[in-house]
Design brief:
The chain is 38% helix and 28% strand. It contains 12 helices and 12 strands. Strands 1, 2, 3, 4, 5, 6, 8 and 12 form an 8-stranded mixed sheet that branches. The protein has a 4-stranded antiparallel sheet with strand order 9-10-7-11. A hairpin with a 6-residue loop joins strand 9 and strand 10. It is globular, with a radius of gyration of 20 Å. The N and C termini lie close together (9 Å). Bound molecules: cytidine-5'-monophosphate. Cytidine-5'-monophosphate binds next to strand 2 and helix 6.
């Protein structure tokens, strides 16, 4: 049986609006998600027995049943018991390049890769939309990670509308290695502080949803208007994460100061997802490399890690098979 090596890329949020609270306890969101080419490598090797064994080269990533990659394998065995009985389990190895607990969907993209990998190994022939349906059971960001690219995500983040690709932009990602923000904490704190602003009735929720579909950032993306996209970056979760994590605010300010000095090349800066990663968008690779250097000089902390990546339109992809 064939082994597969998959690339599982990270995402950033260009827009994250919290609209209200859903009956299922999750938040109703409107997000613009964007894949960037900083990717983990996931190798799936059929092992001829009925077990899934997980290994990962990152000490902070649990190689057990709590890992979304493992949960994805469990879900597939439940959904496709005959294929599981026929083909058996696999050894799954994760080579981590995406920072963990960072607001970059690192865990979600690994779960998505296992769904895609088992679809191939077990020759299930599932379509992307069928895989996205399964992915929704693993987490709100997992469906987006299957196809990636540029998309509007609504509902709890799992309802996707593909947007025109934005392939000519670069991003500098910055994260303090030892800092992480628990996503449930970020949403709960937001609810505690801002629930009076929530849209509560179904009708208003629907019209709000429609407004987002026709909203300024969607229009800017449709027109490939990069400076406008930079201007319209928005993340409601910054309202709770920045006051609680001053280092993240300081990082964001450092990026924004560089933008003031070079507004043509640095389009905008913001926190991604529930943080603590802060990103800045640039028009060229050289500008991204320059910006990375400048931030390293301004904030010379060995705990601060920076990456340069490119916007990409691919989700989970095959890097090799054998
Ligand atoms: O779906 P996922 O497991 O990634 O979500 C992690 C946590 O983030 C949830 O348990 C919930 O606390 C919060 N969340 C939310 N509303 C969403 C997505 C996530 O409240 N739409």
């Amino acid at each position: 049986m064939q082994s597969y090596t998959l690339l599982a890329p990270a995402k950033i949020n260009l827009y994250l609006e919290i609209i209200g609270l859903r009956a299922d306890g999750y938040h109703e969101l409107a997000m613009v998600m964007q894949t960037v080419d900083l990717a983990d490598k996931i190798v799936l090797r059929p092992n001829g027995n009925d077990a899934f064994r997980l290994s990962c080269d990152h000490p902070q990533v649990p190689a057990d049943h709590t890992n979304l990659a493992y949960k994805a394998a469990e879900l597939m065995t439940k959904e496709f018991p005959k294929s599981y009985a026929n083909y058996g389990g696999a050894d799954i190895n994760i080579q981590k390049n995406i920072p963990v607990a960072a607001g970059l969907a690192g865990g979600s993209t690994n779960g998505a890769a296992v769904l895609v990998g088992l679809n191939l190994i077990w020759q299930l022939g599932l379509t992307h939309s069928e895989l996205e349906e399964l992915a929704g059971q693993l987490g709100s960001d997992v469906p987006f990670c299957i196809s990636g690219g540029t998309a509007l995500a609504t509902g709890r983040g799992n309802e996707l509308d593909t947007l025109p690709p934005l392939n000519n932009l670069y991003v500098v990602l910055a994260k303090y290695e030892n800092l992480s923000v628990p996503t449930p904490w970020a949403y709960k704190t937001y609810k505690d502080q801002f629930s009076e602003t929530y849209v509560n009735n179904a009708e208003t929720l629907e019209s709000r949803g429609k407004r987002v579909h026709a909203g300024p950032i969607i229009s800017a993306i449709a027109h490939q208007d990069s400076p406008k996209i930079g201007e319209l970056l928005h993340n409601d979760l910054e309202k709770v994460v920045l006051p609680a994590y001053p280092q993240v605010e300081q990082l964001r300010q450092a990026f924004l100061k560089e933008k003031e000095n070079n507004p043509e090349a640095i389009l905008g800066a913001m926190m991604s997802g529930s943080g603590p990663t802060v990103f800045a968008i640039t028009t060229t690779l050289t500008e991204a490399e320059n910006l990375k250097q400048k931030i390293q000089t301004t904030l010379p902390d060995p705990d601060l890690k920076l990456w340069v990546a490119k916007f990409t339109s691919s989700g989970i992809s095959i890097a090799g098979d054998s």
